[in-house]
């Protein structure tokens, strides 16, 4: 017990509560054949919840936590105690971490690995005593100045090797803790200017790095999924993992499309100029949907603010795509979200997560209702019904040619007329569920 959250009791489902409680998230409620907890698979992000100090580009730390700056193992252990107290209060089934979040970096790779394994021992004991499971682990390959020009894509081969050692250690710890996934986020895998960059060489290095990770996964017997997380920019001007479609092309080029899936973040989708549901639908269509980082951006600021989700209609459309994909397999809903720098108190962190969990629960129930009623899907099927005709299917078959299709269209005197897509009617339909 850390003592930091001692004044806060574990949260319960109590729709009529005026205090800290879940008003919509009932872990045992059945939604489309599964308990709500098993559909949503909530996880807490260790970095934002326990590493974020409340700073911004114009000012430093505003939060005062007893484990800051966590630059010793004693403080790292104190932070772990507080984290698992917090997990117990929320009752979340999962958590996620970077190596940099949970232990101070040592003055050598060997010291850093030793410290990571010592913290992993503590995690394993806490997990065995009723703590949450590990949704995914990952390595921080972007904070240290050695990564200022990337990790896998760095022009210095020694940085590539250092990053490989770091990922090896983090993947093995994730495996030891029975993690369900391993995530790679290329925080600086991109470029600031083409004047000093060879993008073809850097892409080849990134493809080789990912292949090495996949090979090591199989070597050690890790059964979880390897996930990439797309992001278009910030901190680099342009990142190679721009969005779902870009990453799919990258995976296809290096023969990894059957080995790697995606961890898709709402805020990153917005930065790429997409909606969250677009990125989820694309991943589903391409067969690479894995997991989600749930948050939101401030639409006025234009950068990645990582705020807690609070927009039920947006979340409903996201879970609609997730449920259409069959729901989560090894993935889940990780709150990659942080408090605002003026939210100083322990109760703020609890309330932020509780509210976000309720928003997701409401969105899930709306999504399930829309799928079960089948009105949206019926409209979609009707729009594409013409493609069920044998002659339409024949155009897509191997025996057709551009010439044969053109000749038939001319012989039939085709003059197709537009048909309404009924967009406003469908938007109104969605609003009836929300």
UniProtKB/TrEMBL annotation:
Active-site residues, record numbering mapped to chain: 98, 101
An annotated Gene Ontology molecular function: xylose isomerase activity
Gene3D superfamilies reported in the protein's UniProt record: Divalent-metal-dependent TIM barrel enzymes
A single cellular component GO annotation: cytoplasm
Amino-acid positions noted as binding Mg(2+) 2 in the UniProt annotation, renumbered to this chain: 265, 268, 304, 306
GO biological process: D-xylose metabolic process
Entry note: cofactor: Binds 2 magnesium ions per subunit.
EC number: 5.3.1.5
EC category name: isomerase
Signal peptide: none
Cofactor list: Mg(2+)
Keywords, in A-Z order: Carbohydrate metabolism, Cytoplasm, Isomerase, Magnesium, Metal-binding, Xylose metabolism
Residues binding Mg(2+) 1: 229, 265, 293, 336
Subcellular location: Cytoplasm
Primary localization: cytoplasm
Catalytic activity: alpha-D-xylose = alpha-D-xylulofuranose
PANTHER family hit by this protein: PTHR48408, XYLOSE ISOMERASE (PTHR48408:SF1)
Assembly and binders: Homotetramer.
Similarity section: Belongs to the xylose isomerase family.
Protein name stated in the entry: Xylose isomerase
Species this protein is from: Paracoccus seriniphilus
Taxon lineage: Bacteria, Pseudomonadati, Pseudomonadota, Alphaproteobacteria, Rhodobacterales
């Amino acid at each position: 017990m850390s003592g930091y959250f001692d004044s806060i009791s574990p949260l319960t489902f109590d729709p009529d509560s005026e205090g800290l409680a879940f008003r919509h998230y009932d872990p045992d409620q059945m939604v489309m054949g599964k308990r709500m907890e098993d559909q949503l698979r909530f996880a807490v992000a260790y970095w934002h919840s326990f590493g974020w100090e409340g700073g911004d580009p114009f000012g430093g730390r505003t939060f005062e936590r007893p484990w800051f700056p966590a630059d010793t193992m004693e403080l790292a252990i104190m932070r772990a105690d507080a984290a698992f107290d917090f997990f117990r209060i929320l009752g979340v089934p999962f958590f996620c971490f970077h190596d940099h979040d949970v232990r101070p970096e040592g003055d050598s790779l060997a010291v850093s690995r030793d410290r990571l394994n010592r913290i992993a021992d503590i995690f394993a004991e806490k997990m065995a005593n009723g703590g949450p499971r590990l949704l995914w682990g990952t390595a921080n390959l972007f904070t240290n100045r050695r990564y200022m020009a990337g990790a896998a894509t760095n022009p210095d081969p020694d940085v590539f090797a250092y990053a490989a050692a770091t990922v090896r250690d983090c993947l093995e710890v994730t495996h030891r803790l029975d993690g369900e996934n391993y995530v790679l986020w290329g925080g600086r895998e991109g470029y600031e200017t083409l004047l000093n960059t060879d993008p073809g060489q850097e892409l080849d290095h990134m493809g080789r790095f990912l292949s090495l990770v996949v090979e090591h996964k199989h070597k050690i017997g890790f059964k979880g999924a390897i996930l990439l997380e797309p992001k278009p920019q910030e901190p680099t001007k342009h990142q190679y993992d721009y969005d779902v479609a870009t990453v799919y092309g990258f995976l296809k080029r290096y023969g990894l499309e059957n080995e790697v899936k995606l961890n898709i973040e709402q805020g990153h989708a917005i930065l790429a100029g997409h909606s969250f549901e677009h990125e989820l639908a694309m991943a589903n269509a391409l067969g690479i949907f894995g997991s989600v980082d749930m948050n939101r951006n401030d639409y006025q600021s234009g950068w990645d603010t990582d705020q807690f989700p609070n927009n039920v209609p947006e979340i409903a459309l996201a879970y609609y795509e997730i449920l259409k994909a069959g729901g989560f397999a090894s993935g889940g809903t990780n709150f990659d979200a942080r408090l605002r720098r003026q939210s100083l108190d322990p109760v703020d962190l609890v309330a932020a997560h509780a509210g976000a969990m309720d928003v997701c629960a409401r969105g899930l129930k709306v999504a399930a209702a829309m799928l079960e009623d089948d009105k949206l899907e019926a409209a979609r099927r009707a729009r594409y019904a013409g493609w069920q005709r044998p002659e339409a299917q024949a155009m897509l078959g191997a025996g057709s040619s551009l010439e044969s299709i053109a000749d038939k269209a001319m012989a039939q005197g085709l003059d197709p007329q537009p048909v309404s897509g009924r967009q406003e009617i469908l938007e109104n339909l969605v609003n009836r569920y929300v």
